[in-house]
Design goal:
The chain has about 450 residues and is α+β, with helices and mostly antiparallel strands. The chain contains seven helices and 25 strands. It has four domains: about 140 residues, Immunoglobulins (Immunoglobulin-like); about 140 residues, Sandwich (Immunoglobulin-like), CATH 2.60.40; about 60 residues, no CATH class; about 70 residues.
Length: about 450
């Protein structure tokens, strides 16, 4: 491990840095002794750098610095330069991206991942800063590394920084975005702590599948049996995604040790974008045309589910606006809600639209759209529950459900009761902040209680 560096020194070098304009991803693997290995993947547009003339061509030079910091101290850092050459700068495009990789070794724990990309010719710097958790693989039991997704695997005769196992280069896709021209998603991961006995050969099973944002399996995987090469194994998988429409998906990998019958699983989110260069402007044009013929009542209906995410100012402004003002508010609603603006898609909007389709399919009634129900609102705002407990009706109680969200605020619950017995569940209590709280919620499951303000 290199000598530790005070984080302040690293920060002093990037006082004039700009917001990140390149893609960053990472995966954690088991290292030696007490450390874990963190691979950091970059995808840098060639147009980020200035090309200057040199004889009969143009060149750019860049400095890349990747560090993991903890408690204001840099635990490990890697720094290198890259040079790029072109004959004609007119051939450069933002779609042309340079893949890079850094490998750091640190003890398990919580870290700050810092990536700095600097153009040496202009002294311009770009910075990425994010909190990550480095997994501890030291304990016993079957474990998986993180999943590295790739859009390219090539056979290589000369080992380089992208070389993994079996003589292949696995080029990481740091953006996790796949276009319509990329029909296959590749993945790489490692399996640890397989139970082995030299006198008795044994197997493990692996399954790859893809779910949509609502947890529906859209590409069904089959279990495949493989011989254990030892206590650890390497998995390189591939799935054809050409038939999937644009949207957010989860690549899921499950592994079972046939000796111990223990199963572990992991997933990796990725995006499919159809016609990425034209999608954004085309979508805006189509949406504007679609809104043009809407009445004010129809615009109110469209804005309805957006209220769950809108600020009080936006809601008041929408109420006071005329029909043209309401159209503009709807059109621009997601513009400043893009947490990853360097990608060609707005992940937050896509996730909302997929959730909205789901709740309208699952929770709509003859009287109202699904997003107006309490089930629909909670699903739209918080996503898929970690767990759902369903309690049917009985002589002692009305039907009710408890939704658990283990990753929110340290774990929260939502309690829904079908007060009328007609299948309309109302939220009666929650442990989440800014939600309805009624410590005496159990009175609603009594078969003799009624709802004074039942709405549909």
């Amino acid at each position: 491990m290199r000598p530790k560096i005070i984080l302040m020194l690293l920060c002093l070098l990037v006082v004039n840095s700009l917001a990140v304009e390149f893609d960053v991803d990472y995966a954690v693997f088991k290292g030696s002794e007490e450390v874990s290995v963190v691979e950091v993947y970059l995808l840098i547009p060639r147009t980020l750098f200035k090309f200057v003339p040199e004889q009969d061509q143009y060149y750019s030079d860049a400095l890349i610095r990747v560090a993991l910091a903890q408690n204001d101290t840099v635990s490990d850092i890697q720094e290198w330069q890259i040079a790029d050459r072109v004959i004609d700068t007119l051939r450069l495009s933002s779609n042309q991206k340079i893949p890079e990789i850094a490998t750091l070794q640190v003890k398990p724990g919580n870290y700050q991942l810092i990536v700095i990309v600097a153009d040496i010719n202009t002294q311009q710097q770009y910075r990425y800063d994010n909190k990550i958790e480095v997994t501890d693989f030291s304990s016993a039991g079957l474990k998986l590394s993180d999943i590295q997704v790739s859009s390219q695997i090539t056979k290589t005769s000369q080992e380089n920084k992208f070389s993994k196992y079996f003589g292949y280069d696995i080029i990481p896709n740091a953006s996790a975005i796949f276009s319509e021209n990329q029909a296959v998603i590749y993945s790489f991961l490692e399996i640890y702590n397989l139970k082995t006995d030299p006198s008795t050969p044994s197997n493990y099973k692996v399954k790859y599948s893809i779910d949509d944002l609502n947890g529906k399996e859209v590409i069904r995987g089959e279990w495949r049996t493989k011989k254990k090469p030892g206590e650890s194994a390497v998995e390189i998988g591939s799935l054809n995604i050409a038939s999937l429409p644009g949207g957010l998906y989860d690549l899921k990998v499950a592994v079972t040790d046939e000796t111990t019958e223990q199963t572990v699983a992991d997933d990796k989110r990725f995006y499919i974008v159809k016609s990425p260069t034209a999608q954004s402007s085309l979508a805006m044009d189509i949406e504007a045309i679609q809104l043009e013929g809407k009445s004010e009542e129809e615009l109110d209906e469209i804005f309805g589910p957006l209220r769950y995410f809108a600020t009080e100012t936006e809601i008041k402004r929408f109420k006071k606006s005329d029909i043209n003002g309401k159209k503009q508010i709807i059109l621009s609603f997601w513009n400043h809600r893009d947490k990853n603006p360097q990608t060609p898609i707005n992940e937050e909007r896509i996730e909302f639209e997929q959730r909205l389709r789901y709740v309208n399919e699952q929770y709509s009634s003859k009287r109202a759209s699904g997003w107006k129900s309490d089930f629909g609102r909670i699903y739209l705002m918080y996503g898929i529950p970690s767990e759902i407990e369903r309690f049917p009706s009985s002589l002692e109680s009305k039907p009710y459900q408890i939704w658990y969200y283990n990753e929110i605020e340290g774990g929260v619950k939502f309690y829904f009761v079908d007060k009328t017995g007609f299948g309309t569940y109302e939220l009666v209590h929650s442990t989440a902040r800014n939600e309805m709280q009624d410590i005496n919620w159990q009175r609603w499951i009594s078969p003799y209680s009624t709802s004074p303000n039942l709405t549909y």
